[in-house]
Amino acid sequence: MAYEMIIVEIADHICVIKLNRPKALNALNGQLVAELGDAVTHAEANDKVRCMVITGSEKVFAAGADIIEMAEKTFVDVASGDLFGASMMPVQDAKKPIIAAVSGYALGGGCELAMMCDFIICADNAKFGQPEINLGVIAGIGGTQRLTRFVGKSKAMDMNLTGRFMDAEEAERSGLVSRVVPVKRLMEVTLDVAAKIAEKSQISIKAVKDSVNRSYETTLAEGLLFERRVFHSMFATDDQKEGMAAFVEKREPQFRDK
Ligand code: DAK
After folding, report:
1. pTM of the model
2. Which of these is catalytic: 65, 101, 123, 156?
3. Does 65 participate in catalysis according to the annotation?
4. 64 catalytically annotated
5. Which is the catalytic residue, given 62, 112, 129, 139?
């Protein structure tokens, strides 16, 4: 698929997917979402890629779903077309880690896309919001669900009921983002973080994703059992032997994803 609304660059085992629809502030229309899904699917299948980054421009990560494209749709259109259902699955279900590098606005579907990633690093100019209430609708791809798990009921209600934006400082304080960095250093820091992830054993990386994500789906007791069993299973890997031997021998581990 030729991409017109995203730019994909792969270097040093990191696939950077840049949303690139500047005139519409990276609004997520059908084409952009299809391209994004295709890019993530290809990165998943590409053995050279060990970590992905989804980012936008300095002004905007994404200003949400494309309101102009949605405005005339009927209930039957969105329900039968499963708007933002299957098309977002590649991001949501990715096995490889995805970091959202957010600068500027991450609103509506943009905030939800960032939350679908494994974690968010944001610039100090970032603004997060679920302003769908101002359009006579509600969030539809996680703004009432994932956001509540990130920031708690009170702030999730506040943001969804009023449509107000949360700045970077509040987003970090509330647990929505993992770190805030100066806007000019966003990609440098994010690529550095991605490089650290890329050098780990990919078996352990997938196990971490599975285990952390399981914590959202189950009870604490079940989650702890799941984690323990996954931990036990790591002892079947060469990378566990290598990682622990390297520690004992005071050298850097050479993981082989086996
Ligand atoms: N869609 C389409 N175009 C957009 C847009 C959007 N979301 N956001 C901005 N644009 C366009 C503007 O129309 C404008 O186009 P021109 O007039 O130049 O042609 C251009 O981008 C620049 O925008 P502004 O002139 O407004 O720029 P400002 O810097 O003044 O303001 C802003 C920036 C981000 C504060 C403002 O543009 C804004 O408030 N944008 C809308 C934000 C918003 O309401 N986002 C939520 C969208 S609704 C579903 C699942 C999910 C969803 C829906 C359904 N299902 C499962 C069924 C998700 C819904 C949403 O995300």
Report:
1. 0.96
2. 65
3. yes
4. no
5. 112
